[in-house]
Design goal:
This protein is α/β, with parallel strands linked by helices. The protein folds into two domains: 242 residues, Peroxisomal Thiolase, Chain A, domain 1; 144 residues, Peroxisomal Thiolase, Chain A, domain 1, CATH 3.40.47.10. It is 31% helix and 20% strand. The strands form three sheets. Strands 1, 2, 5, 6, 7, 8, 9, 10, 11, 13, 15 and 16 form a twelve-stranded mixed sheet that branches. It has a two-stranded antiparallel ribbon with strand order 3-4. Helix 10 links the parallel strand 10 and strand 11. Helix 2 packs across helix 5, helix 6 crosses helix 11 and helix 9 packs parallel to helix 10. One of its GO terms (molecular function) is 3-oxoacyl-[acyl-carrier-protein] synthase activity.
Amino acid sequence: MTTSVVVTGLGVAAPNGLGTADYWAATREGRSGIGRVTRFDPSQYPSRLAGEVPGFVAEDHLPSRLLPQTDHMTRLALVSADWALQDAGIRPEELPEYAAGVVTASSAGGFEFGQNELRALWSKGSQYVSAYQSFAWFYAVNTGQISIRHGLRGPSGVVVSDQAGGLDALAQARRQIRRGSQVIVSGGIDASICSWGWGAQLTSGRMSTDDDPATAYRPFDGAAAGHVPGEGGALLVLEEAGAAAARGARVYGRIAGYGTTFDPKPGSGREPGLRRAIELALTDAGLAPADIDVVFADAAAVPDLDRIEARALVEVFGPRGLPVTAPKSMTGRLNSGAGSLDVATALLAIRDGVIPPTINVTAQDDYELDLVTAQARSARLRSALVVARGHGGFNSALVVQDAA
């Protein structure tokens, strides 16, 4: 029998809420965390809005020894991992030595830390560059720091697939549980809202240049003109279902299915791979399209990309075949943090029987989707599909189900 893998802990740091409860309350109510960038002066850049995590003071959550060696991204990740383990009721020191691991996703690493050290190098000299630069910038640093902090010495790793990374990391974590690991902390936290990271993100050509938070990021809208970046994400605790039940753990739901593909070369004439990724996820879950109750969309807010996603959903589920939502319209696109935050949101939606809205959509184009807009919708939910696409051709889809 295939091992069932469940989620027993959530740790969220998002632009519209620090902590799971604050995030979920804001998301249900349709409250946005998008505003003008404050982490640096954005006035010289064409894009000036972002989703920044509010009220986060690292000194309130972490020992002082960790602060000089960590980027803002890693601090968010360490705190989110703490919260996820606490939520799951797991004390890592009580686990067998190699029973637990960490699998995270990253799209950039500690850009802000690296930027500051480069500034020191060129303005003062190499003797002023921190020794911590050797790892604080690295895309695998979140996995390493979480592992060290909690003594999680089991199978671990990092996945780099841009916006699809959060789903890919959870799939890798599920794989490790099925291979015998007891606990895996997994998901993604990203934060590249600094001038160096901003310049890198602008090269995509997909960032909105609108200065109005109410209109800048409008997926599946006739006036869509790019996305707003954000920081944060979610880390989840995954366990084997039987072990979780044996210790009396509260279960949010299970990771039921996963599929991933890569788009063909542009100009090849072949169809994008998203529909196939969705079909693979459904097959892996043993479900038919009619078994899915809601889709959490990738929501690029680039018309051509929105049409590709809508077409894939219509081909699998039929025109307006089921509700579709994009809560990331309240947070911005969080790179590798996006997929895992959507999975956490989907599990909370299933728990509470409510589909959060896609905000700011005022001129919905005819994508043949039943897009949930303006306000949350009550619904009986048992299964949700989460879709994510990474820049360059990554496509991932993950199915979560209730704990029943």
